[in-house]
Amino acid sequence: MTGVSLSSADLDPRRRRILFRCWHRGIREMDLVFGQFAEKEIATLSETELDEFETVMAEEDNDLVRWIMGTWPVPERFQTPMFERLAAYKPDFEYPADALPRNA
């Protein structure tokens, strides 16, 4: 998935803003994680869950990618069901062997 496929027409302004921000993070890996999560979950998140999601979104992308990929431990404040749900959307960032450039 490379962009928004969910129509935001039926979403309230807050959810539309969050959905847009999820797909425009600045680091492509985080666009994919946050964007895919929002595509599936944004319409059903409670206000409390939206608050928590926005708190996570406020963190630096470089830190988030390390936490989600497991290269850094997740800070205790983010060891929550919401962060676990978000981290479950991590796409496969590895290239298939047949897609790598071949040495001539």
UniProtKB/TrEMBL annotation:
Signal peptide: none annotated. GO terms for biological process: tricarboxylic acid cycle. Pfam families: Sdh5. This is FAD assembly factor SdhE. It comes from Rhizobium favelukesii. Keywords: Chaperone. Belongs to the SdhE FAD assembly factor family.
